[in-house]
Each structure stands twice: as structure tokens, then as C-alpha cells.
Specification:
The complex is a heterodimer of chains A (397) and B (127). With 397 residues, chain A is of the alpha/beta class. Helix content of chain A is 52%, strand content 18%. Chain A has 11 helices and 12 strands. In chain A, helix 5 runs antiparallel to helix 6. Chain A is elongated, with a radius of gyration of 40 Å. The relative contact order of chain A is 0.07. Chain B has a single domain, classed as Rossmann fold. Chain B contains 4 helices and 5 strands; from the N terminus they run βαβαβαββα. The longest helix of chain B is centred in the last third of the chain and has 20 residues. Chain B has 127 residues and is α/β, with parallel strands linked by helices. In chain B, strands 2-1-3-4-5 form a 5-stranded parallel β-sheet, sandwiched between helices. Chain B is globular and about 35 Å long. In chain B, strand 1, helix 1 and strand 2 form a beta-alpha-beta unit. The chains are: A alpha/beta (397), B alpha/beta (127).
Chain lengths: 397, 127
């Protein structure tokens, strides 16, 4: 029995004492089984679980110490109280060393027995409650761990999906930017080869032709890289590097140069000199700023303004502000912009995942993301990044 | 009579060098660097085959293709692109395109495509 009525076993070869104790314990409200035989007590212990065993020490054949030993083998949580008419200090110490809960000398006062049994029952009850609590705690922890694991898995999937979408949008730009100069190198080297092949044999002709072939080989390698970028979808574990946030901003804006040029957008970069280097995930932060700056470009009209600035927030944080003078976000929309699948863009342009994933990444790296906007005036995103994302633990996966 | 090829690409160095290389292979080549010039040339001195860059500032490659096809539907157009055909852009590829070739260009492949395009142009002209 657990938590309900406590179950007591009374073992004493003096029938009168055993019956007396049985009567008293029953009156206390316990469920009581009494026996005069130590052998029978062992049998009862095999078949039942008692909370407390009250046993005489000196008995024929099977004595109190044997009962104590067997009881603890079978039921480690059960408390055993020794009673004896031949109490000595040695026997008391011996019984306590063997794990008895208490030692009562005969003749005993019934109140003393009541008190000791009550304490033993309380102790067993607490032990059982504790075990139940530990079990509950452990299963709760397991459930939370599992749920958090699932969330991270889902987020990783969403990030991967959004990465593909963003890369899909920009793959054309990347291919264009790399392939055009590559195509020029290819043509120039090609023309050199044409001219060389038409010219008479000279001292260096074969050498030059070999060198040109080496150029063609490198052009082909670059072309392969371009194609890899087109199919590129990196996994999203946090990978910590040390870098300058200004470099990321420059890199991202170069990536978006064609769009900026086509929309005739004025891009202002106010990058703080001597900005502390950050320990964070470079690839993920590139994605964050690519997404926010791309949104700013989408938000402004042709000829609009996008201003990106970096600064020190405090000793642990740097901040990046991305400001546009575009159409702004209404108060109602502003409440939802970080929610997944919320978009104000046309279906073909936006998946509605960009900002929610951006938010997730920034939070995951121990940072913050804030937004201020006014309809028809423009929007400012402020991204705060810890200089050491590893120290901003708890947030970092 | 040699095949008349018009190269349209805002990357001057690319277009001019490719033009020179095709000229060495006995093509009658002209290179222009603006979409508008491509249309003017198609009207004043129609080519047999146009090598057309897709992404250009201003009216863009697809508009040029449509206009050239309106001027003379038998002029064949080969698209110069950095990406595989299916991923050219999100836009729908207009009809009338003869073929495409990936940049950087493989000269042997380009010659085959220009010759095939010219052959088709000759067949259309005489049918």
C-alpha cells in the first residue's frame, strides 16, 4: 500500500504482547497483521508489503535480526522497529546498525510505541511521496526535453525552407555577378588562344597555350562553384566564428547591389569604426541581415533610401539598425510581423517566414530584434547581437 | 554569304571579345551594349541570329526578344544566361526563343547553336 492506510506487521512470540499491540495499532487506524512466529513473519513478508514491521528481537528459530535483514532485502523502504525484553546497549547499537528504525525496551509504554510507529509511518510515507515526486519530475523533464527538441527540429526545418526560398531569390543575382566576369575571362583567354593558334610557331607558343588551358580549367572550376551555390542549402546548427559585423553588412549589401542598382535605391552605410568583433554564427547572421535589408529594399519605392548603421550598444552588445523610408507597417500588422506565415507581400514574393525565422535566429544567438514603424514614413529594425553568443547561453542551442 | 550575328549584352568586354572571336571564325558579327541599340540594329540591318543577354538595365532581354520577333519572326534568338533553362527567371519564357547557352560560353557549343539557328532561319525565310 502506498499513501492510503499504513500496513503494520507485528511479530512477537509472547501472544499477549502481540495481541495487545495488534489491538492498539488497529485502534490507531492502521491495517494490522500479527503473528507469534518468526518463520510465519518471513512468509508474510514474502507475500505482502508492509510499511512498518514491529518485531520482538529474541525469538526461537527466526529472530528479530533475521526478520530485519530479510525485510530490507525484500522491501528496502519498509521501516523495522525492534522490541526486546533483554535490552542491552550492544544489542540496540547492533540493531540500529543493521538499519532498524528504532529500538524499544520492554516493558514499554504504549504511548511510546504509538509515537515511534507514527514516526516510522510518516518516514515511509515521505519516502514514497519523494519517489513519486522524483518520478513525476523525471517524466516532466523528459516531456519538456522532448517538446523543446521537437521545436528546435521544426525551427531548423523552417530555417532550411526559408534559406532555400531566399537563395532561390538571389541565386540569379549570384550567378549573374560571378558568371559575367567569368565569361569575360573565358572570352579574353579564348581570343588569346585563337590568335596564338593562328600565329606562327614561336618560342613561347606551346607554353602560352598550356597556360591558357590552365585558365580554362580554373574558369570551369568557378562555374562548378556557381552551380553549387545555386543548389546550396546549408544545415543550420550554430557554428561560432569570430568576425567583424561590419564585414557581414558590406558582404550582404554587395550581394544585393544589383537590386539596389535596378531600383535606383540610395544605400547609406554608417559603419562604426573599431566595432568590437563578435563571436557568433556568421552564416546565420548573414541570413538575418540579408532578409531585413532585402525587406527594406522591397518596402521602398524606386529612388528610396535604405540606411544601415552599426554601433556599440553596451559592453556586451553591438547593434545594427536598418532604416528605410518606405511604405511602413501599420500598427495592426506590426503586432504580427514576427509570426510565421504572416506576410503583406504578394504570394509569389514572400513566404511569410522570413521575419519569424530571422527573429528565431537572433534570439537563438542571444540577441534581440526591435522594430519601429510608421505608415508611409518608413520602418527601422534594430538588431542587437551579443559580442559573445557562447556566453549568452541558455538562448544558444 | 556569312551568317550575320548580333550580340546584345551590357557587359562590353564580354560582347566585344566574343564578337572578335566569332569574326575570326568568319561570321559577320556586330556587338551592341544596350537593349535599344539591339532593336534599332534589328530594324536597320537585320541579323540572322541574335545572341541575347537576359538581364540588362532598361527594357531587358525578354522585351528585346519580343520586339525583334515582331520586326522579323525569322530572326532566331539564342539566350545567353548564367543559369539552367528551367531556372532562367520567375517570369514565363516568351515563345520564339530558339535556344539558350550558359555563360561562360563553350565556343564549340555556341558555333553549333548559331549554325542550327541560321539553318532554321534560312528554312523559314524560303518557306
Amino acid at each position: 500500500m502506498i499513501m492510503g492506510i499504513a500496513k503494520i506487521l507485528i511479530v512477537d512470540d509472547e501472544k499477549v504482547t502481540m495481541k495487545n499491540l495488534e489491538h492498539v495499532m488497529k485502534k490507531e487506524g492502521y491495517e494490522v497483521v500479527g503473528t507469534e512466529s518468526g518463520q510465519n513473519a518471513l512468509k508474510l513478508l514474502e507475500e505482502n508489503q508492509f510499511d512498518v514491521v514491529l518485531t520482538d528481537l529474541k525469538m526461537e528459530k527466526v529472530d528479530g535480526m533475521q526478520i530485519l535483514k530479510r525485510c530490507h532485502e525484500l522491501h528496502p523502504d519498509t521501516e523495522v522497529i525492534m522490541i526486546t525484553g533483554h535490552a542491552t546497549l550492544e544489542s540496540a547499537i547492533h540493531a540500529m546498525k543493521q538499519g532498524a528504525f528504532y529500538y524499544i525496551a520492554k516493558p514499554f509504554k504504549l504511548d511510546e510505541v504509538r509515537k515511534v510507529v507514527k514516526e516510522a509511518v510518516e518516514k515511509v510515507k515521505l519516502k514514497k511521496e519523494n519517489i513519486a515526486l522524483l518520478d513525476a519530475k523525471s517524466s516532466l523533464e523528459h516531456a519538456v526535453k522532448e517538446a523543446v527538441g521537437k521545436l528546435y527540429e521544426k525551427q531548423a526545418q523552417l530555417i532550411a525552407a526559408e534559406k532555400l526560398a531566399i537563395l532561390g531569390l538571389f541565386a540569379a543575382g549570384v550567378a549573374h555577378e560571378i558568371n559575367n566576369p567569368l565569361a569575360i575571362i573565358n572570352e579574353k583567354a579564348g581570343l588569346m588562344k585563337d590568335i596564338l593558334e593562328m600565329s606562327e610557331n614561336s618560342k613561347h607558343k606551346t607554353r602560352f597555350l598550356n597556360l591558357l588551358d590552365a585558365i580554362f580549367e580554373s574558369v570551369n572550376r568557378c562555374r562548378t562553384v556557381t552551380h553549387r551555390i545555386l543548389g546550396f542549402a546549408r544545415k543550420t546548427e550554430v557554428s561560432i566564428e569570430i568576425f567583424d559585423l561590419n564585414d557581414i553588412i558590406k558582404h550582404v549589401t554587395v550581394f544585393l547591389e544589383k537590386e539596389i542598382l535596378y531600383k535606383n535605391i540610395r544605400l547609406e552605410l554608417n559603419l562604426k569604426k573599431n566595432l568590437p568583433e563578435v563571436r557568433s554564427d556568421k552564416g546565420q547572421l548573414q541570413q538575418v541581415f540579408l532578409n531585413i535589408i532585402k525587406n527594406a529594399i522591397d518596402a521602398v519605392e524606386n529612388g528610396g533610401l535604405v540606411a544601415v548603421s552599426t554601433d556599440i550598444k553596451d559592453e556586451n552588445m553591438v547593434k545594427v539598425s536598418i532604416k528605410d523610408n518606405g511604405h511602413g507597417i501599420s500598427g495592426e500588422d506590426l503586432k504580427h510581423i514576427f509570426e510565421p506565415f504572416f506576410t503583406t507581400k504578394e504570394k509569389v514574393k514572400g513566404t511569410g517566414l522570413g521575419l519569424s525565422i530571422t527573429y528565431g535566429i537572433v534570439k537563438n544567438l542571444g540577441g534581440n530584434i526591435l522594430v519601429e514603424s510608421e505608415a508611409n514614413k518608413g520602418t527601422t529594425f534594430i538588431v542587437e547581437i551579443p559580442t559573445n553568443s557562447e556566453l549568452a547561453k541558455g538562448e544558444v542551442v | 554569304m556569312s551568317t550575320k550575328v548580333l550580340i546584345v549584352d551590357d557587359e562590353v568586354e564580354f560582347a566585344s571579345t566574343l564578337a572578335e572571336r566569332l569574326a575570326l571564325r568568319n561570321y559577320d558579327v556586330k556587338a551592341v551594349y544596350h537593349a535599344e541599340d539591339a532593336i534599332t540594329t534589328a530594324q536597320s540591318d537585320p541579323p540572322d541570329v541574335v545572341l541575347l543577354d537576359l538581364r540588362m538595365p532598361g527594357i531587358g532581354g525578354f522585351e528585346v526578344l519580343k520586339t525583334i520577333k515582331k520586326i522579323d519572326p525569322t530572326i532566331e534568338v539564342i539566350l545567353l544566361t548564367g543559369q539552367p533553362k528551367t531556372e532562367v527567371t520567375g517570369e514565363e519564357i516568351p515563345t520564339g526563343l530558339f535556344d539558350y547557352i550558359m555563360k561562360p560560353v563553350d565556343m564549340g557549343e555556341l558555333i553549333v547553336k548559331i549554325n542550327n539557328a541560321n539553318e532554321k532561319r534560312n528554312l523559314s525565310k524560303h518557306s
